[in-house]
């Protein structure tokens, strides 16, 4: 039965599963049953729990080991042994002791809760499914003197498990319901508000998410999580100057955070600010193996006109992900800029085969095919591109020159005229060529 030690540890060292980033659970120290009067023969368990309160793990482990060798089905001692192993980061041992405690007493709220939290922290090999099962069971049991606080802790952990994540589909509605159950038991915390904001964002309820982030910032203007979350929303809305303000505020608290710096580089690049490139170069130097940062650097170098420098990084990325259509398109565009048209054709052709719905890949293939004298391929690529993007002067010109190469006089004349109507003097060389070809084609019978 739970007792005094339980409360000491609950309020002195236990951390909620979601403390910190809503997606990054902190090390949680489980709460242990404590010290209501134990039978005389259980004095060893009481001595072990006294050692636990003092964080004297070796003494507690030794005492509990002696006791359990003679009393292997003592649920309380098994839980205590799990707690000690958990605190020492011996997670496999801890899980084994918690499971034995549950087998000895299936109604043990503390054992189900602590096992669920441990498995949630591990987040591997299906452990989240088992964690969820244990935590759901905990919500159905009597927490004893721990009362609402510990049951709310189980609900908050479930909310973290149920929310969508990078490697799981999740269920935003279920996660929101879990959080509401926690809020019925205990007051809302800043972490709850941040989680509510991320759940609203996951559900596409951007106004609600923004309101939640701003509510946190009203109380704590320096909250890195709220500043970063709000900046993410503003970036999606292309409100770059305001996003920059919030990102700089977040970086004051976490100046070396790679995600925040990458977001800031994105915002600066969108505003054509020169500091974007040196920022992402510095970030790449600090995290050379980070593919996301490397991709950003490649994109910024391309935008800065350094096709060769950019392509160095695209080649590096493609070595690890040879079938990534977006990387192939970026690589192909750099090859076009370097007038390496046959190689560009190969890159764009592969990209379109991997993703037939990518208009940028079809645009690149059309241009590369025209420069390598493949008019039939150019026309096919332009046809595919037109399913996703409207025509522009450059595509009108490619249509015209391809039909001209194939001696399709009527179609070529039509597209040369459409090109001249759309170009409005912006492409003088091509306009001169188009007028010359029109004169020649119109003279032909």
CATH superfamily of the domain at 1-167: Tetratricopeptide repeat domain
Query: What oligomeric state is this?
Result: single chain
Assign the structural class, choosing from mainly alpha, mainly beta, alpha/beta, alpha+beta, or little secondary structure. Answer: mainly alpha
Helix content: over 70%
Largest sheet: none
Alpha carbon gap, first and last residue? 102 Å
| Morphology | elongated
Percent of sequence in beta strands: under 5%
**CATH architecture descriptor text of the domain at 1-167:** Alpha Horseshoe
- CATH first level of the domain at 1-167: which class? Mainly Alpha
Radius of gyration: 31 Å
SSE string, helix = H, strand = E? Answer: HHHHHHHHHHHHHHHHHHHHHHHH
Mean residue pLDDT: 87
User: Segments where pLDDT lies below 50 for 5+ residues?
Assistant: 1-30
How many strand segments? 0
Count of DSSP-assigned helices: 24
CATH topology of the domain at 1-167: Serine Threonine Protein Phosphatase 5, Tetratricopeptide repeat
What does this structure look like?
This protein is mainly alpha-helical and 445 residues long. Among the domains are: 1-167, Serine Threonine Protein Phosphatase 5, Tetratricopeptide repeat (Alpha Horseshoe); 188-275, Tetratricopeptide repeat domain (Serine Threonine Protein Phosphatase 5, Tetratricopeptide repeat, Alpha Horseshoe), CATH 1.25.40; 392-445, no CATH class. It contains 24 helices and no strands. It has helices at residues 4-12, 43-53, 57-70, 75-87, 91-104, 109-122, 127-139, 148-162, 172-185, 190-202, 206-219, 224-236, 240-253, 258-270, 276-286, 291-303, 307-320, 325-337, 341-354, 359-371, 375-385, 393-405, 409-423, 428-443. It is elongated, with a radius of gyration of 31 Å. 43% of the residues are buried.
């Amino acid at each position: 039965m739970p007792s005094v030690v339980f409360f000491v540890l609950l309020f002195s060292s236990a951390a909620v599963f979601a403390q910190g980033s809503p997606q990054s659970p902190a090390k949680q120290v489980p709460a242990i049953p404590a010290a209501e009067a134990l039978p005389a023969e259980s004095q060893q368990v009481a001595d072990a729990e006294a050692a636990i309160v003092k964080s004297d793990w070796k003494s507690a482990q030794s005492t509990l080991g002696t006791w359990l060798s003679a009393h292997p089905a003592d649920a309380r001692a098994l839980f205590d042994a799990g707690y000690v192993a958990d605190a020492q980061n011996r997670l496999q041992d801890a899980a084994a002791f918690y499971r034995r405690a549950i087998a000895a007493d299936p109604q043990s709220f503390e054992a189900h809760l602590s096992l669920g939290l441990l498995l949630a922290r591990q987040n591997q090999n299906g452990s989240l499914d088992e964690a969820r099962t244990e935590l759901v069971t905990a919500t159905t049991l009597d927490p004893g003197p721990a009362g609402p606080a510990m049951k709310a802790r189980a609900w908050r952990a479930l909310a973290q498990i149920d929310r969508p994540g990078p490697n799981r589909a999740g269920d935003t509605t279920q996660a929101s319901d879990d959080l509401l159950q926690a809020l019925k038991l205990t007051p809302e915390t800043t972490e709850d508000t941040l989680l509510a904001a991320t759940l609203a964002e996951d559900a596409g309820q951007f106004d609600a998410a923004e309101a939640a982030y701003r509510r946190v910032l009203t109380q704590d203007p320096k909250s890195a999580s709220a500043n970063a979350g709000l900046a993410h929303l503003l970036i999606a809305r292309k409100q770059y100057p305001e996003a920059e303000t919030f990102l700089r505020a977040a970086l004051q608290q976490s100046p070396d955070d790679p995600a925040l710096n990458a977001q800031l580089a994105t915002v600066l690049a969108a505003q054509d600010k020169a500091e974007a490139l040196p920022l992402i170069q510095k970030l790449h130097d600090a995290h050379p193996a980070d593919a996301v940062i490397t991709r950003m650097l490649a994109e910024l170098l391309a935008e800065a006109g350094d096709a060769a420098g950019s392509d160095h990084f695209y080649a590096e990325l493609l070595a690890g992900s040879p079938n990534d259509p977006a990387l192939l398109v970026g690589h192909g565009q750099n090859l076009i800029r370097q007038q390496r048209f046959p190689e560009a054709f190969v890159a764009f052709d592969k990209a379109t085969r991997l993703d037939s719905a990518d208009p940028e890949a079809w645009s690149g293939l059309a241009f590369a095919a025209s420069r390598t004298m493949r008019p039939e391929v150019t026309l096919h690529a332009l046809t595919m591109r037109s399913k996703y993007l409207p025509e522009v002067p450059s595509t009108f010109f490619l249509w015209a020159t391809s039909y001209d190469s194939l001696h399709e006089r009527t179609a070529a004349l039509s597209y040369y005229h459409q090109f001249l109507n759309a170009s409005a003097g912006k492409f003088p060389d091509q306009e001169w060529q188009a007028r010359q070809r029109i004169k020649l084609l119109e003279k032909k019978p």
